[in-house]
Amino acid sequence: MTTPLLPRYGTGSLAEVLPSVLAALGEPGPAPIALPSVRAACVLLVDGLGAELLRTHAVDAPFLAAMADAGPLTVGFPSTTPISLATLGTGLPPGGHGIVGLSFDPGDHALLDALRWTRDRDGRHHDQRETHVPEVVQPHDTALQRAAAAGIVVTMVAPRFQRESGLTRAALRGGDFHGVFALGDLAAETVSGLSGPGRRLCYAYHSDLDTLGHVHGPGTLPWRLQLRQIDLLVSTIAAALPPDALLVVTGDHGMVTVDRAPDFDADERLQAGVALLGGDARARHVYTVDGAADDVLATWRTVLGDDAWVVPRDEAVAANWFGPLGPHVAGRIGDVVAAMRGGTALVRTRAEPKLAALIGQHGSLTSAEQLVPLLVAGPAG
What we know:
Layout: H1 17-24, E1 40-46, H2 51-56, H3 62-66, E2 68-69, E3 73-74, H4 81-90, H5 94-97, E4 103-104, E5 112-113, E6 118-121, E7 124-127, H6 134-137, H7 143-149, E8 153-159, H8 166-171, E9 176-180, H9 183-195, E10 200-206, H10 208-216, H11 221-239, E11 245-251, E12 256-257, H12 268-271, E13 274-280, E14 283-288, H13 293-304, E15 308-312, H14 313-318, E16 336-340, H15 353-356, E17 360-361, H16 367-370, E18 371-372, E19 374-377
Parallel strand pairs: 1-10, 1-11, 8-9, 8-10
Antiparallel strand pairs: 2-19, 3-18, 4-5, 6-7, 11-19, 12-17, 13-14, 14-16, 15-16
């Protein structure tokens, strides 16, 4: 069995990006990633931009392929959007910021959907921003807050619906939010955010590459044509950069194509002893009933075999899957943690029908999911 690719927390992960950018802007503190000194900087996160996918399809992204690459970086575990955005936004590993899964138990024996910040009841999504206040679930200051406190003008450019979302409040609070509709106003708002007087930091986000990877599969023609649009977006922003500004482009995970999909909802062996099943199809948190953890671990290892790395919580923590744990974070991690291998996705066709139907998935510890580029344009290149 191949070994998992463990995140490089502290030296080469998403957690090191914004601290290094702040150092480039003149703020004291560690800078694990060497960047030139600048007056203004933008971090553009392209959802689903994996390093291996970009390398394979470099012909569709000539500008990105020609940029200076300070990566690849690992994203952390699970390699899923809310975890990665919180890791980038706080400069902490998942064990530090505490958002440990696409869905996880925050401590009251029910699942919190970290992407929507909701709970599902009666087939509906119920807002949890008052019940599970994002600033309490993730209490650490973000890098954007630290930058603003230092007098840096901070701009956040993202889809309009993300304004005041639970995930934005938890992971990326602290900037002046500029909501956008499409690639054109994303580019315009990003350039504007870098162009005023004084030190400036812009965080920008684009999601459509991930969407097409999920729906059509990574590397398919629709995905490749979307990558071409992103290449044009990045070249447009880079061409309009002020001479003393830096553009850093990265991703929050890669993606794999699913070729095997065992169904938890149809397998009584996997259900036995399980109180809650969190995470997503490539990275599962298994919360067990009292006294059942050892039996669940043994059963899951037998049923999934070489399709997954299945370990108890303590082993996942000791192996640094989540990084050092902050107070109260250990209980958010499943009693058993399962990270899928190859093209396997552990789906739930009844409880998660939309997620189960996706062709492209991510979340695990394979290089295809873990590695993202760190591309630099401006004074460095």
